Amino acid sequence: MNNVEKKAFTVLQQNKVAIFVVAFNAESHIESTLKRIPKWVIDELEEIFIIDDKSTDKTIEVVNSIKWSFEKTPLNIFCTPNNQGYGGNQKIGYTYAVSKNFDIVVLVHGDGQYAPESIPEILAQYLEGYDAVYGSRFMPKSSALKGGMPFYKWIGNIILTSAQNKLLGSKMSEMHSGFRSYRISSLAQVPFQFNMKNFTFDADIIVQFHIAKFKIKEVSIPTYYGDEICYVNGFSYAWGCVKTFIKYRLMQYEIFYDPKFDIRINRSHPYSSKAVYSSLHTYISNSYFDKKKRILNISYGENIFATQSLGKQYDITYIGQYRSYNSNTVLQVDLNKPWKKQKELDNFDSVFALDVIEHINNPEVCIKEIFDAMNTGGKLYASTGNIGFFTIRIMLLFGFFNYSRRGILDLTHTRLMTVNSFKRLLDYGGFEVEKVVGFGPPLDNLKNYNILLKFFNKILSYFAHKYPSLFAFHFLLICKRKDNFQDVVNITTKAPSVENESIS
Predict the structure, then answer these.
(1) Do residues 40 and 143 share a domain?
(2) Alpha carbon distance 479, 423 (integer Å)
(3) Domain residues for 23?
(4) Which residue, 265, 341, 346, 365, is the most exposed by fewest CB within 10 angstroms?
(5) What pTM value is reported for the model?
(6) Using CA atoms, how far apart are residues 481 and 219, in angstroms rounded to an integer?
(7) CA 100, CA 94: separation in Å to the nearest integer?
(8) Could you tell me if 345 and 317 are in contact, meaning their C-beta atoms sit under 8 angstroms apart?
(9) At 86, which CATH number?
(10) Tens digit of pLDDT for each residue in 393-429?
(11) What is the edge-to-edge ordering of all strands in the sheet holding 17-23?
């Protein structure tokens, strides 16, 4: 054995490795493909399983007739009830691999286009701790042409891979090789079940591994083009790949949501601070508050950043829907129920309800509780995302309404507000809106924040302050608690202002 084979052998001995063969109308190649797998690799495998995608030829019969000694390794063939597509076939195979508790799965095409002889090169890389290992026909670029790849496919592959690398921020030599392998512990952490059922599945899973920050390794493989039938529509496939990567990019900007790209290895939903240029928390941190006044900070998530930034010189009481942020500081209160039945909270001069109301099932009840907890003339600082933001208006015009993990259309929001509807809610709750402060989209938080984005940030921030109803991504209402209506009634009717005179 050479050095690569020794490494591959070690991987096989230390891990439960399975080979997964996708097959559709592969009767002419399936037997030769299987026999090209090195015999010493087969002997150390946990299983070889084939998923026939409802072939119309004799693929199953050919496999069942193979005269092969499998003293150590079983060869299993399964057939889908109906055609699932290339991606659908992979979904089934990877789900099976996860359920069988394999450690590594190697994907092989039944038509033999990708050299099974290269499996040792693939497996050897797992000693380096990679999460996925792909075979590349473009290492170097000229090798694919020398192997018989048609020129139009060669140039198309280069252009498409380059565009995908640009959108993803990666440096892969080839995005379109079907010779792939995965560490099962990593594969199980991505929602590949949501991926496309067609050939775009391969693009989807690359994006998923990139988001999860899993390590992908490419190894050089030979290129084979024989008499196999290609079922890929080149233009449709290319457009599908581009759409996948554009969706990923839009999701990074929090203006689009797709569950297949919602990959959080830690499923907690941390609150992202808005302490950036011209933001809500920066505004609050730079505001003046009377140190003699009592302040109530209400949080729905795990955040108390805004008023924490004011320092310890203020008399601040923290309440929240959850205690997990800081159990010694935050009093747990179910914001969806009347507070008075839970905690005695009253006589506050200022209340912060920053990004809270949109999470409450019944905001009207929450506003009433805030009103009852405040002194007359006290100040309420309430903020929320603006569903009237101009980009959302444009999206609605074209029939799009996409939730996201954060931002205006956060998946956890139960009530969406415009500036006017939030004003009306607070007015009915007994508050007089004194000031509206609009904030632009949080471009500062983008990974690739540059001079151009900084310029747009200043422009959008200006318009957000000037015309918050249309250009504010996020807005703050500063309100004054008016006299309690019942108090006004009592004061008014306490005694006649003019004594009645008898009329003769």
Answers:
(1) yes
(2) 9
(3) 3-261
(4) 341
(5) 0.70
(6) 67
(7) 10
(8) yes
(9) 3.90.550.10
(10) 998 998 888 887 778 888 889 999 999 999 999 999 9
(11) 75-79, 47-52, 17-23, 104-109, 180-183, 132-136, 216-220
